[in-house]
Amino acid sequence: MRKHYIAGNWKMNMTPSEGAAFAKELVSALKGSTTKVMIAPPFVTIPAVVEAVKGSSIIVAAQNMSDNLNGAFTGEVSALMLKDLGVNTVILGHSERRSLYGETDQFINKKVLLALSQEMDVDLCIGETLSEREGGKLEEVLTRQVTEGLKGVSEQQMKRITLAYEPVWAIGTGKTATPEDADAAHAFIRSLIAKLYTKGVAEELIIQYGGSVKASNAKALMSKEHIDGALVGGASLSVEQFLPIVNFDK
Ligand SMILES: O=C(CO)COP(=O)(O)O
Questions:
Q1: Strand partners for 229
Q2: Chain segment 107-124, per-residue pLDDT in tens
Q3: Measuring from atom 3 of ligand 1, which residue has the nearest CA?
Q4: Domains along the chain?
Q5: Per residue in 16-26, pLDDT tens?
Q6: Mutate which of 64, 169, 232 to test ligand 1's pocket (most atoms within 8 Å of Cβ)?
Q7: Residues tagged active-site
Q8: I want to staple 120 with a disulfide (CB 3.0 to 4.6 A). Which of 52, 57, 115, 144 is the partner?
C-alpha cells in the first residue's frame, strides 16, 4: 500500500523570513497529521525553514544541487552542504532546469547517482511538452527520461526514489491533465519501472503528479490508482492553498 506524498516546490519564491513564517503556520496546521509532506524552498531560505519545522515530520528538500561534491564550481551548492543543514531530499530534473538551464538526461543522471551515493532521497521530475504529446511521443519521452535518469540506480537504491510526472504544458498554466490522462501516464511509468526493475519495485514506487494541482482538483487526481501524491508549485506558496491539498482526503 503506497502512502500519499504531497510536496510543495516553491521555485524562486519566499525569502528566508517569509519561508519561516509559512513553515511555522504549516507545522501548527498539520499537528497530528500522518500525511507525508515535503517543502522545497530556495537554497538561502532552507536554513530558516529547517529551523521552523524542527520537531515536526515535514521534510525540507532542495530544488536542485550540483553534480559535484566540492571544488571550483562558482554559484553551485553541493549535497554535502545540504546534508550539513539536515536536508536529505533533493528535487532533480525539474522541467524548468531542463528547459531554461539546459539540463540533459545524462547530467540529471549524474546528479541522481551523486545524491544516492550521499544517501539522499531524490524526487526525479519527468514529463513531456505539448508538442511531444501532440506528436504522439509521450511514451517515447517518458521512456527516455526514466531510463536515462535512473541509469545505474540499483534496485536497493530505488527505495530512495520518488518520481514526479509533470507534463510541461500543465505547469503554471492552469491547465491540469485530466485525472484519467495523468493516471494513464503514471500507469505507463509504473509498467516501465517493472520492466527495468521488478514488479515489486514498481508497486512500491511513489509517483507524484505535478502541474496546476490545486485544492479543487487534488482529490480527483489523488483518488486515481497510480497517482500517489502531488508536486505543487503555485498553490504551495500559501498555507491557505496548500493545506487543503495536503488534507485532500479529509
Ligand atoms: O512545476 C510544478 C511543481 O514542481 C508545478 O507548478 P504549478 O503547480 O505552479 O503548475
A1: 5
A2: 999 999 999 999 999 999
A3: 233
A4: 5-246 (3.20.20.70)
A5: 999 999 999 99
A6: 232
A7: 94, 166
A8: 115
